[in-house]
Write a structure and sequence with these properties.
CATH superfamily of the largest domain in chain A: Aldehyde oxidase/xanthine dehydrogenase, molybdopterin binding domain
CATH architecture of the largest domain in chain A: 2-Layer Sandwich
Number of helices of chain A: 20
Number of strands of chain A: 27
Helix content of chain A: 25-40%
Strand order of the largest sheet of chain A: 3-5-1-13-10-11-12
Number of domains of chain A: 3
Helix content of chain B: 25-40%
Shape of chain B: globular
CATH class of the largest domain in chain A: Alpha Beta
CATH architecture of the largest domain in chain B: Roll
Order of helices and strands of chain B: EEHEEEHHHHH
Distance between the termini of chain A: 52 Å
Oligomer: heterodimer
Largest interface: A-B, 57 and 52 residues
CATH class of the largest domain in chain B: Alpha Beta
CATH superfamily of the largest domain in chain B: Beta-grasp domain
Number of helices of chain B: 6
Largest sheet of chain A: 7 strands, mixed
Strand order of the largest sheet of chain B: 2-1-5-3-4
Structural class of chain A: alpha+beta
Strand content of chain A: 15-25%
């Protein structure tokens, strides 16, 4: 389909061999001489309490303990572990107000797992033993687990700067009446001939990356603070740590390690502040912090749960005249991402369909749960559960086929995307719907499963989604790429872009190989953060799109220099030269110079003593790009799911799934398929099995893989992924994103399939066997 | 804590060292022998990330196994499957089929596959799914892993010289 050599090819990933042999080094694998071990001591027994007494003396006496650190022994600066404040303009920052509310060690517990103190010891075992000797007394406080509880007037205020425990609403200055949308919703809604209105309850779900958070930090004699971390966002975390510890960026040395999964769970700082604080307390010695799996659920962020009210008015012909929505988000114990997810949850709603008018409002409240934050999809899976079920309910009542309705009403090229004012430049959603429907046998199965009896009921459902490639214009989008051409013609690409496992380093290498016209084996992606320029990091499905754009431009800069030098040497105008097969050749084919020769002469540049002439143009060739994308090239996608439900056990088996994705161009097709399949596993969990459960004291009941059920290999359905490739005009090589997209539309597709099978719409996720049995029994389905 | 001197044969090499009685095999491999190719994912046998082979055939969660109990046993980790820099067919299949994303579950997944194929050289797709049930991957949706196991099975069966478990010699 294309004349490209490296882009679009099914080749092994650049890092696959080191991972499959166990040679890839994750943060927990690091070994340094004379390493100390840090233990973060957490509050496990309360979700809301004041520390009335902290006694570290017994812990300090344990032989092998080097230092104990309480709240007063570390910086008193507040921070927000999220990074969105670094990505928004000062003007926007002012609208959001004060969002820094976290401390390294606290004397006021806002959720189970809050950090109380730190222990630094000669071995992990000694640190653990000393942690058991820490004496903490608490004064328990009322626990608020839902926004409606913390929002009550007499509730304890989490933060005097955020009255009513309301962390966020859409700021008036940017969103008049705190509304995102368009048109006169009340007037348009009045025209509706059918109104579908429901309140949905969305679960708190966990990223569950398989690598538990681990770090090493060292404060050395030069005054540099080094931190080895598997963060998704090296540059922004470096920035955050430099601010927190009041150091210049040149003294904050962040060394990225192989990332054992992220999914948003390593977006921003996680336990870097505690680790760095411990290293600063023991200058000259490495401090390693290996967190435990069970800590991850209590101490790190999850997807935002909440209540999502949605009302859509339709005409009898299906016209969606108006949509009215309110998302009440539970941001958990700290502010973290209280702005981002509540905003985007509405943005995905707005980007999807051609409503006559739409009004989205959101309020985010503090509760005593672990903080909510970034999780792959960033509000989109939540919206998908709500919006796509609402559409299907309308289709059912109007007698319209759900696929046909979506083909008629989804946004198209020229319509505004998730950010009003940024129109879609490409859309292949109709093709996704058609190819997906054909693959799963939509029409036949919809008819076949219309009237069923017996204990096992089948259903088939569809869902669509829109997403984004990078977060412009709401957030900063910027990547710097440098391409150093070695004297043998091979290239080293220096970028800060991380690879969370999605294959972005492979895609960046392919883009470089394609643009430079040299084999992938001759290109290395260098991730050294001292030399790398700025990059936002891995979030918002941006790395192939923005990082790829930067790499492409930097490689084009190399090509320009190669041609200029060949032009000087050959005496041929630059417009008569091109690069082919590692040669700069004249378009008439008569003259050429090899890329290797130009690169080599640029480095080993000699003057002929006899005549004083140089043997070529001097100077090592380096390409550079500081890339700010001009668009966000949103991808679309359609998912189809078939389920079988046992109405006597309540068990749902997802039998088959087809996902058709509007990828623009697949740079590395196996990775695109992999993102869709892996995203589906997470989406299926959120829809059917996954939820962090709290008891009435606010303590987590299922912080283990035994009790928090992920979809396993036996649970996964037969899966077909279809890549619809129509290149986007504004994107590098036409690519659009896939990273987060996978987690989105399986949510709505499975929920709609359940609804098709049973004739019951579930407003609460996950749709567990208990909920199914209850609903089946209440409705007397036999 | 009392200690005991033990000898483990790991990837064909004997190591004699002193361990506390409560030291897990995972800790012994990672912290004492500095063999970090076997991963800590949960420490309680739930994720399978620390799976290793015992005597070339059986798989265990090294986080649930005491090092002291492994005295005299042959242990194979994912690094031990690679001979003279040559990938084992299972590793080759994982690379070729795109079965690796973040790679953190990969060592355990490869060793579970080695055990599965040592016991059942021609597994059905259902056998594979059942066989991998104790190993969690959060990246791939298992799809490409299952294809890789199928391919590895074909590659091993086509080769007279390779043994699935890559047992210690």
């Amino acid at each position: 389909m294309s004349d490209l050599t490296y882009v679009g090819k099914n080749i092994p990933k650049v890092d696959a061999k080191e991972k499959v042999t166990g040679q890839a080094i994750y943060a927990g694998d690091l070994q340094f001489p004379d390493t100390l071990f840090g233990k973060i001591v957490r509050c496990w027994e309360h979700a809301h309490a004041k520390v009335t007494h902290l006694d570290l003396s017994e812990a300090a006496k344990v032989p092998g303990v080097v230092k104990v650190l309480g709240p007063k022994d570390v910086t008193q600066k507040l921070y927000n572990c999220g990074v969105l404040d670094l990505l928004a303009s000062e003007e926007v920052g002012h609208m959001l107000g004060e969002i820094e509310d976290q401390r390294i060690f606290t004397d006021y517990v806002r959720h189970q797992g809050d950090a109380i103190c730190g222990i630094i010891a000669e071995t992990q075992e000694i640190a653990e033993a000393a942690a058991a000797k820490v004496i903490v007394k608490y004064e328990p406080l009322p626990v608020y687990l839902q926004p409606e509880e913390s929002a009550k007037p007499d509730a304890i205020q989490f933060d005097a700067r955020k009255p009513g425990n309301k962390a966020f609403q859409l700021p008036e200055q940017m969103f008049p009446n705190n509304v995102y949308g368009w048109g006169d919703v009340d007037a348009e809604m009045a025209k509706a001939e059918l109104i579908i209105e429901n309140t949905f309850q969305l679960p708190k779900v966990k990223q569950c990356q398989i690598e538990p958070h681990a770090y090493v930090a060292l404060f050395d004699q030069r005054g540099r603070l080094s931190i080895w971390t598997s963060t998704q966002m090296p540059k922004l975390v470096q920035n955050k740590l430099a601010r927190l510890f009041e150091m210049p960026l040149s003294k904050l040395n962040l060394i990225p390690t192989t990332i054992g999964g992220g999914f948003g769970g390593k977006l921003g700082m996680i336990f870097e502040p505690e680790t760095c604080a411990m290293a600063l307390a023991v200058p000259g010695r490495h401090v390693k912090v290996q967190s435990l799996r069970e800590e991850d659920w209590v101490a790190s962020e999850s997807r935002h749960p909440g209540k999502y009210w949605l009302k859509i008015g339709f005409l009898k012909d299906g016209t969606p005249v108006a949509a009215d929505a309110l998302f009440t988000a539970d941001t958990g114990a700290y502010f973290t991402h209280a702005t981002g997810v509540p905003f985007t949850t509405g943005a995905w709603l707005i980007g999807m369909y051609k409503y006559g008018a739409v009004r989205y409002k959101t309020n985010a409240y503090y509760t005593n749960k672990a903080p909510s934050g970034a999780f792959r999809g960033y509000g989109n899976p939540q919206t998908n559960f709500v919006l796509e079920q609402t559409v299907d309910q309308a289709c059912r009542q109007l007698g319209i086929d759900p696929v046909e309705w979506r083909k008629r009403w989804h946004k198209q090229v020229g319509d505004d995307g998730w950010c009003l004012g940024i129109p879609y430049a490409s859309s292949s959603l109709t093709e996704c719907l058609e190819r997906g429907a054909a693959k799963i046998g939509w029409a036949e199965k919809r008819a076949k499963y219309a009237n069923q009896s017996g204990p096992k009921r089948r259903g088939v459902g569809v869902s669509v989604m829109n997403h984004t490639s990078g977060a412009m214009p709401m957030l900063l989008e910027h990547t710097v790429a440098k391409v150093k051409m070695n004297e043998d013609g091979s290239a080293v690409i220096n970028v800060a872009c991380s690879d969370v496992g999605a294959g972005s380093h492979t895609a960046l290498t392919q883009i470089a190989a394609e643009t430079l016209g040299i084999p992938m084996e001759d290109i290395y992606i260098d991730n050294n953060m001292d030399s790398a320029g700025f990059d936002v990091g891995s979030h918002a499905s941006r790395t192939a799109y923005v990082g790829g754009g930067a790499v492409m431009k930097a490689c084009e800069d190399v090509n320009r220099q190669l041609i200029e030098r060949a032009s000087t040497r050959l005496g041929i105008p630059v417009d008569q030269l091109e690069i082919k097969n590692r040669q700069v050749v004249s378009k008439d084919g008569k003259a050429s110079m090899s890329v290797k020769e130009i690169c080599n002469v640029g480095v080993s540049n000699y003057i002929n003593p006899a005549n004083g002439e140089r043997n070529g143009v001097p100077g090592q060739i380096q390409g550079y790009a500081s890339h700010f994308p001009s668009h966000n090239s949103p991808p679309f996608g359609a998912c189809f799911a078939e389920v079988e439900i046992d109405i006597e056990t309540g068990q749902t088996k997802v039998v088959e799934m087809v996902i058709a994705h509007d990828i623009g161009r697949a740079i590395h097709p196996p990775s695109v398929h992999g993102q869709l399949a892996g995203g589906a596993q997470q989406a299926l969990g959120m829809t059917l099995t996954e939820e962090i459960r709290y008891d009435e004291k606010g303590l987590i009941q299922n912080n283990s893989f035994f009790d928090y059920k992920l979809f396993g290999p036996l649970d996964m359905p037969k899966l077909t992924t279809i890549l619809v490739e129509n290149p986007d005009p504004g994107a590098p090589y036409g690519l659009k994103s896939v990273g987060e997209a996978g987690t989105v539309n399986p949510v709505g597709a499975v929920a709609n399939a359940v609804s098709h099978a049973l004739g019951i719409m579930f407003t609460e996720a996950p749709i567990t066997p208990e909920r199914i049995l209850k609903a089946v029994n209440e409705r007397g389905i036999k | 804590m009392k200690t005991r001197s033990i000898t483990l044969c790991v990837n064909g090499r004997d190591y004699t060292f002193e361990v506390p009685h409560n030291r897990t095999l995972l800790q012994a491999l990672r912290d004492d022998l500095k063999l970090t190719d076997t991963k800590y994912g949960c420490g309680s046998g739930e994720c399978g990330g620390c799976t290793v082979l015992i005597n070339g055939k059986d798989n265990i969660n090294s986080c649930l196994t005491l090092a002291a109990e492994m005295e005299g046993k042959h242990i194979t980790t994912v690094g031990g499957l690679t001979k003279n820099g040559q990938l084992h067919p299972i590793q080759q299949a994982f690379v070729e089929l795109g079965a690796i994303q973040c790679g953190f579950c990969t060592p355990g997944m490869v060793m579970k596959t080695a055990s599965l194929l040592a016991h059942n050289p021609n597994p059905s797709e259902d056998d594979i799914r059942r066989g991998l049930e104790g190993n969690i991957c959060r990246c791939t949706g298992y799809e490409n892993i299952i294809r890789a196991v199928q391919k590895a099975s074909q590659m091993i069966n086509a080769s007279a010289t390779q043994c699935a478990g890559g047992a210690c010699s």
